[in-house]
C-alpha cells in the first residue's frame, strides 16, 4: 500500500449491466507499537569502569498493522547504565521511529575490577641496620587493574610487606 490518498473503484454487474462508483480512502503510515529484545548483545557482563557495548544486540519493532521489523541495537539507544555500580542493573533501550518512542529494558552485570599487576616504586635493594624496623618512607606501588585502569603512588604500608624479620641476619 502507498501512504496517502487513493481512489478506489467499486464495480457491480447484474444482468449484463455494470455500474461503477469510486471513493477516496486515506492510507495512513503504520505506527510503531512496541519493541522487544530478540537477541542480547554479545557481552552482557561488563568490567567495572568500562563501557557497555551492545554489539550483536537485536530488537524487533512491532507495528499497528501486525508487521515486524528487525532493528540492530546501537550504543546510542542505551540509557541508565552505571559502570561503577557492581552487580546486576537494568538499562533502558530506546527506539524512535516517525516521532514514536518505545522503550524496553535489559539486565546487564557489572563485574568488579581486579588487580592484574603491581609495580613497586622503590630501590631494588634497601639497606637496614640489624634490629631496626624496615623504613618504608617514600616506597609506593602502582596498581594495574584488568579493566585497563590504574592507581599510582599508593604508599607501601607494613601490612603489605612480608619476608622481613628485624631479628634475623643473613650470612
What can you see in these coordinates?
With 171 residues, the protein is mainly beta. Helix content is 0%, strand content 51%. The chain contains no helices and 12 strands. The strands form 4 sheets. The protein has a 4-stranded mixed sheet with strand order 4-9-8-7, with no helix packed on it. It has a 3-stranded antiparallel sheet with strand order 3-5-6, with no helix packed on it. The chain has a 3-stranded antiparallel sheet with strand order 10-11-12, with no helix packed on it. The chain is rod-shaped and about 125 Å long. It starts with a strand and ends in a 16-residue tail after the last strand.
Concise summary:
This protein has 171 residues and is an all-beta fold. The chain is 0% helix and 51% strand.
Q: Topology of this protein?
A:
Layout: E1 4-14, E2 17-27, E3 32-39, E4 45-47, E5 58-63, E6 68-72, E7 78-79, E8 87-97, E9 100-111, E10 115-121, E11 140-145, E12 150-155
Parallel strand pairs: 4-9
Antiparallel strand pairs: 1-2, 3-5, 5-6, 7-8, 8-9, 10-11, 11-12
Q: Can you give keywords for this protein?
A:
171 residues; mainly beta; four-stranded mixed β-sheet; three-stranded antiparallel β-sheet; 0% helix
* Shape, principal axes of CA atoms: rod-shaped
What structural category do the secondary elements indicate? mainly beta
- Radius of gyration equals 34 Å
The H/E string reads EEEEEEEEEEEE
- Binned, the helix content reads under 10%
Q: Main β-sheet: number of strands, strand sense, barrel status?
A: 4 strands, mixed
Please tally the β strands and state the result.
12
Query: Cα distance, first to last residue?
Result: 95 Å
Oligomeric grouping of the chains: single chain
Number of helices: 0
Largest sheet, spatial ordering of strands = 4-9-8-7
Q: Proportion of β residues? A: over 45%
pLDDT averaged over residues: 90
**Spans of 5+ residues with little confidence (pLDDT < 50)?**
none
